[in-house]
Amino acid sequence: MRKVLLPLMLLVFCSGFAFAVKYSYKNNTYQKLAEQYSIKAEKALDAGEYVLAEE
Q1: 48 Ramachandran zone, left/alpha/beta (phi>0; psi -120 to 50)
Q2: Distance, CA of 37 to CA of 55 (rounded, Å)
Q3: Which of 5, 37, 40, 49 is 20 to 30 A from residue 31's alpha carbon, by CA?
Q4: What CA–CA distances, in Å, run from 14 to 7, 9, 21, 43, 49?
């Protein structure tokens, strides 16, 4: 019984940890800002505003 229970508990713990890491990465304020800046830079590049895109 113990041979089955320990790996099962480890699997549940690891999957919960992986979910928490992914969730905290997506809801990170700095990650959201980086995505917004990337979108603005791409739009500026498409418009030919190379100096603005660099900022």
Answers
A1: left
A2: 9
A3: 49
A4: 10, 9, 11, 40, 46
54-to-5, 21, 31, 43, 45 alpha-carbon distances in Å: 55, 31, 19, 12, 9
Residue carrying structure tokens 């905290």: 24
Alpha-helical runs (H) found in 2-46: 2-26, 29-46
Which pLDDT tens digit goes with each residue over 2-26? Answer: 677 777 777 766 666 666 666 666 6
| Residue type at 10 in one-letter notation | L
Confirm whether pTM is higher than 0.85. Answer: no
- The per-residue b/e assignment along 8-43, b for 16 or more CB within 10 angstroms, e otherwise, is eeeeeeeeeeeeeeeeeeeeeeeeeeeeeeeeeeee
